[in-house]
Specification:
Rossmann fold; about 200 residues; homodimer; three-stranded antiparallel sheet; alpha/beta; binds nicotinamide-adenine-dinucleotide
């Protein structure tokens, strides 16, 4: 069983390897990969060793091969249907962002409660009425939901998403939501980014 | 010198302790704190020990005391002036989000290139013309800049921010920007959140 912190790092390795692959870099050492992403090379080797023998001592990792393995491990070999709830500023930025689609992470359904927004175009998607959440989730077979609505509605939205069959939730609302333990939940707190900049600046 | 990964975890401890403090929890063990945030208790104790003797063996940490120390360590004892460049969807979500201000992280200046947006109200802030970036940064004394503009403009914006005196940059544009090594740079990639959900789901 991989410690949860390794799982947290894998997507970071993946992103970095993707960029290297785009630049046609064929081989990379754990030292150099680690330097690029600020992770000690010992940790890089340890993390990647959980999943198999990828590297060659003294040489490093073959980028295209490792990328292929990571894609499989990370579940990126398939397309994922994602339902977004909350067609506000944050929701718009998420739907607008091309980076997700490139990974097969498709936000094809957007739901909102505001009658002025329902029926509007949002990126390439039409905003649906959140009252139809259950049908939308069932018909799309969406397994992932994103909560980008105000905090006071987050728990209710989570409950409905899970009831309808969603297995993983990405929550941006600044509140603790409760989900059954078999549901994957990730709370995104963008303050962490600003706080770590404040930390570094205050040390100068 | 603290390893960079400890620095990455400190804001997470801080957030968790803040919530505990709000609920008037007085003491917490490294085990329980670790469980709340998915970090092994050994790591929690190791991380916090870099900064002093905060815990008491067999008892744990006094929440208000630890919070006060972390606030100082993280540079949150002061207010920070922040300039945001790119008054789009993402920019709007960041300015809208109350969580930053509560930490003394104040996005008081927003700049854009679109003449239709300049002069518009954006949260409690008026959008300024990005052509005035240098004056805005100098007059505000802003030390942090956020880039929420399209990728093709990110490097140019970063250069100007740094030239004007900004010391730290939070970059959301999906591109690698180059900065002098004394400048703090954090690239935010929200794909990491979705990828880790895909990972967990694909393992079920
Ligand atoms: N976690 C972070 O770091 C972070 C950063 C920015 C914003 N946020 C949070 O993300 C959320 C959205 O922020 P925003 O700036 O886009 O806000 P917003 O006000 O622009 O958008 C919220 C949207 O949710 C809709 N909505 C309200 N109740 C709903 C319901 N019951 N069902 C469906 N839709 C509903 C609204 O009509 C609106 O379109 C907020 O909770 C905010 O605090 C979090
Ligand atoms: N890193 C991530 O995970 C993530 C997620 C979402 C969005 N993004 C990125 O964030 C950026 C903004 O996304 P968005 O959805 O808000 O886009 P948007 O198109 O809504 O907003 C971009 C804004 O930047 C302004 N702008 C363009 N050129 C400028 C310049 N030279 N100076 C100042 N302002 C300028 C535009 O007028 C517009 O208001 C994009 O680069 C997007 O790829 C990243």
């Amino acid at each position: 069983i991989t410690p949860s912190t390794t799982i947290e790092r894998l997507p970071i390795y993946y992103r970095s390897l993707q960029k290297l692959d785009k630049k046609n870099v064929e081989v990379i050492s754990s030292k150099e990969l680690g330097e690029r992403i600020g992770i000690p090379s010992t940790q890089v080797r340890k993390d990647l060793s959980y999943y198999g023998e990828f590297g060659r001592r003294g040489v490093g990792y073959e980028v295209p091969v490792l990328l292929k393995h990571l894609r499989k491990i990370l579940g990126l070999n398939q397309d994922w249907e994602i339902v977004l709830v909350g067609a506000g500023h944050l929701g718009h930025a998420l739907v607008n962002y091309g980076g997700f689609r490139k990974l097969g992470l498709n936000i094809n359904y957007v739901l909102d409660a505001d009658s002025k927004k329902i029926g509007e175009e949002f990126g390439d998607v039409e905003i649906s009425n959140v009252e139809n959440l259950t049908e939308v989730v069932k018909e799309s077979g969406a397994e992932m939901g994103i909560i980008a609505a105000p905090a006071e509605y987050a728990q209710g939205i989570a409950d409905e998403l899970i009831e309808a069959g969603v297995k993983a939730i990405w929550n941006f609302a600044p509140t603790h939501i409760k989900v059954p333990h078999e549901i994957e939940l990730r709370n995104e707190d963008l303050s962490i980014g600003l706080i770590s900049l404040a930390y570094h600046l205050s040390r100068k």
